[in-house]
Amino acid sequence: MRAYYYDNLPGDQRLPHDYVPSRPVSKETLDRLNVKYWTIPVEGYETRVDEIAKERGYKNRDMINVSKEGLGEIYEDKIKTFFQEHMHEDEEIRYILSGSGFFDVRESPSDEWIRLAVEPGDLVVIPAGIYHRFTLDEKNQIKALRLFQDEPKWVPHNRSSETDVNPHRVEYLKSIGVSA
To answer: Where is the signal peptide (predicted)?
Structure first.
């Protein structure tokens, strides 16, 4: 996984949007934001992913194929929904099996976007309460294993004055040493 600051220039969301020169983001910065990641080779990934799932209390999982073929008629709507800035009340855990894409996470308190370029073998944990979004890259396809602590669910709460005071958001900010 490659992490860097998003350039905020207008244009296709599927492009890299990397500054020139690039502004890489360190593992320490991601750790401070409670964004976790591992690189696990796809061949034989099950054992290591199972270990991490057990360590972090993930009990359920499913597979998602984000592509025109995988989502059919709802593809365009889903891509728009995924790219709206939102937060979840649960961690978002993805292990990339094929394809590639971008998770953008808000750095607090700067409010800058950090782009996480993910590809096969990347396992990323987006913490509950962090504002983020997702998009495919120009290849228009990603297949990912989704892990869940309880029943599979994906409930986005779009950024608003209500989400700014959501208990999961407030707890997240407190956990990284930022006042709500």
So the answer is: none
